[in-house]
User: Fold these one by one.
Assistant:
Number 1:
Amino acid sequence: MAHVPSQQQLVVRTTGNLNSLHTIYNFIEGLPPFVGKSDTLTEDNNDNNGKHVDDLEIQMFDLPTITTATNNFSMENKIGEGGFGPVYKGILTDGQEIAVKTLSRSSWQGATEFINEVKLIAKLQHRNLVKLLGCCIQGQEKMLIYEYMSNGSLDSFIFDNKKSKLLEWPQRFHIVCGIARGLMYLRQDSRLRIIHRDLKASNVLLDEKLSPKISDFGMARTFGGDQYEGNTSRVVGTW
């Protein structure tokens, strides 16, 4: 008898592999090899993420505020470079530290991915997802304003010989469990069922206590609450 998928299941037909996830999990010493297919690397041709954020309940920052916070986007404040463009550390007038993710005009990701990330992350609240504080859209300038994560990304620990030694077994286990909780929330417990589609070590950020938070939802795709299967055709993400 053919197996009938449960309504609680979420199946996505994709191509590719789990190289990025494999990297995250294999940084735990002694973890056995894992081989499988990725559920995060393709995009449906019918995706329609919209072009506006007018209907979102999200704080809008003006450009002068962000310019001042980042010291006019100085190189000293630059803390990374993503698919969207450079990321800067900033400090608001009330002393709050922020991370400013800018959309570069030469970025291989575009306005659609920017709007997609705003719409998704604004609706999500979980301790293992990076918190979106607001955005700045002024003319050609588009920026996402996030909480600042003092320990940077997970890959900066995994691929650094000195920093990797700072992660003892309990901390590594804590990080992996946090990532798993974040994914469980996205797949089952959030108002939207979400497939991240670009989960990798550089998209997992660590706070001052080395607690992980999943970031970068530009490639994510949503599913209906009762939807368990989706067809995909175009490759996206990192491979």
Number 2:
Amino acid sequence: MSRAEILDILDGTHPRLGRSVALAMDALVILSALAIAVETVPGLDPSLKRALLGFEIVVVAVFATEYFLRLYAAERRLAYVFSFWGIVDLLAWLPAVLMFVPAFQAIRVLRLIRLLRLIKLFNTAPALNRLLRAFLRVKSELVVWGVISTLLLYVSAVGIYVFENPVQPEVFSSIPAALWWSVVSFTTVGYGDMYPVTSGGRLMTTFMLFIGLGIFAVPAAIVTTALLEAETKLDPRDPEPNETKETNKGD
């Protein structure tokens, strides 16, 4: 079997085996994520723990084998190793190996990076290309929106601190602490752990709630408009996202 055929099978483009291998790998990613979640349940039966450990060993073996096959088949191996997908493929199995070393127990959560592999399902999807085109078209507007939102968050935190700190020093203890109130108010979530009791603070909260409704509607409208224009290609000067490259071939 040639190196090109190996890559076709692993990338899911092989006419006979590609789709089956791709679906099997995606299913393995999802099952391993569920297994990681089950591991955190307290009081698990020892037999179930052993089963989960055995399943993790199988997952590691499969992903490690895939990684080294891709490395073997890559035209430019070093480029693949340092590419985005090369790093994702490596982190799909390496943290699970290191977690057996006591000093590296804390990094076992990195196994969830495997979920990034599911993005490969959309690599060639037209919908993803339209979304990328839309974001590229309005990236300047989104940056401006982000800067304005950040400034408003900070100004509101300063304002609520001035009003509430004298009467609630334990709640609004500092401007950084008041930033949490700003975020909750802007998003109109309202957890209730921080709330104003002064007239000035309540007036500012009312003002920020209305501002928050408008602030978070703006990017949705911007992206929606850009998606419609990307769909119809109203502007031929719109930037086109680069074609998805086979990173494991070193591009």
